[in-house]
Automatic annotation (TrEMBL):
Job of this protein: Catalyzes a trans-dehydration via an enolate intermediate.
Reactions accelerated catalytically: 3-dehydroquinate = 3-dehydroshikimate + H2O
Keywords on record: Amino-acid biosynthesis, Aromatic amino acid biosynthesis, Lyase
Source superkingdom: Bacteria
Protein name: 3-dehydroquinate dehydratase
Gene3D superfamilies membership: Dehydroquinase, class II
Organism: Shiella aurantiaca
SUPFAM superfamilies (alphabetical): Type II 3-dehydroquinate dehydratase
Pfam families: DHquinase_II
Catalytic site: Y22, H97
Length: 142
């Protein structure tokens, strides 16, 4: 089983970006912890600040990934194209947000990706990524 984690804009700054909201751990460090915890499966990680690169990577996962964990960052609220891509690729996508986007600014309550996602985890910090992995594992054994 291969699960691909795809993070969007500004998530490369985790650990230093607004630690009161996003915590003080870098995603690279957390990803190494996930790899150590989930050794029976293949985990991939990709991050880009560029919308088109995120779309290209999502499309490149066709036939390669069994599931995708997507944190589109600010593009969640603005990108029709990313939402369309999630609908088009035919791979189950769990959307993850570190903060609770529905408890923040009004514009963050607009989500253009959720309707095409299998599910959404929001507000549970980095733990949301491991919960998404657990979901994919449970579905594989169902």
């Amino acid at each position: 089983m291969h699960i691909e984690i795809i993070n969007g804009p500004n998530l490369n700054l985790l650990g230093t970006r607004e630690p009161s909201i996003y915590g003080n751990q870098s995603f690279e460090t957390y990803f190494k912890e996930l790899q150590a915890l989930y050794t029976p499966i293949s985990l991939g990680y990709y991050q880009s600040n560029v919308e088109g690169e995120l779309i290209n990577h999502l499309q490149a996962m066709i036939g390669k990934a069994d599931g995708i964990i997507l944190n589109a960052g600010g593009y969640t609220h603005t990108s029709v194209a990313l939402g369309d891509c999630v609908a088009a690729i035919g791979i189950p996508v769990i959307e993850v947000h570190i903060s609770n986007i529905y408890a923040r600014e009004e514009f963050r309550k607009i989500n253009l990706i959720a309707k095409n996602s299998k599910g959404l985890i929001s507000g549970l910090g980095l733990k949301g990524y491991s919960l998404a992995i657990e979901y994919f594992l449970s579905e594989a054994h169902a």
